[in-house]
Amino acid sequence: MTGESSKKKILLVEDEKHLAFTLSYNLEAEGYEVKVAENGELALRRYQQEGPFDLIILDIMLPEIDGFEVARRIRAIDKTTGILMLTARATENDILSGLAIGADDYLTKPFILQELMLRVKRMLERSGMMIKANTTRKLVSGHIELDLDNLELKSVNGTYQITSLEAELLGEFLQNPQKILTREHLLKTVWGSSGRIETRTVDNFIMRIRKYIDLPNSESYILTVRGKGYKFQPPTSP
Ligand code: CA
User: Fold this and answer.
1) Gap between the Cα atoms of 14 and 176, Å rounded
2) Separation of 58 CA from ligand 1 center, angstroms?
């Protein structure tokens, strides 16, 4: 037996006791190790003292320190641990702020348990892949240089530490220049999402990536193809 240490470790931050219980029960049944924190302060303490975690499931509406602030503080020191946000208020602003802080995905309450389990599985598979890789995988297109292993992105705008999801999404474009990639395709390949399609997630991530790579006052390298999706137009000169 490989024992406890081989289990993927999840930090579940949720103040609704019943939901926290249901989620941790089901996640543990799937073979994950789950630590529950019922408020933001406890979440940060557990993160520091009981980490590292493979994934953080983070409710936004929490007493005192809310989920946004928890994500902000964690992202200030940790760019790679996946963060799945749970939001009761599916307002555009909430979703945008969550993703801007560095959450990788979100689910709107109430959600279907199966959908959460699927997202968790997919996010954990991805983080495992990133850690397993032992050769540096670099993708270069003009002035854009993406280091998939160190999650470092260089462009004329500067050098950025990005999240694994941002890296995967940009990687998908760099590897498929001049090809229209639909939102559904991106959700499937990058997020592994099946069932309910939340295309806004894709749009928000595209906005973030554009900020990293685009030159000010010029056309984006990631073109919006109306009614279809997005297309990567590689920079013509370095
Ligand atoms: Ca809550």
Assistant:
1) 39
2) 9
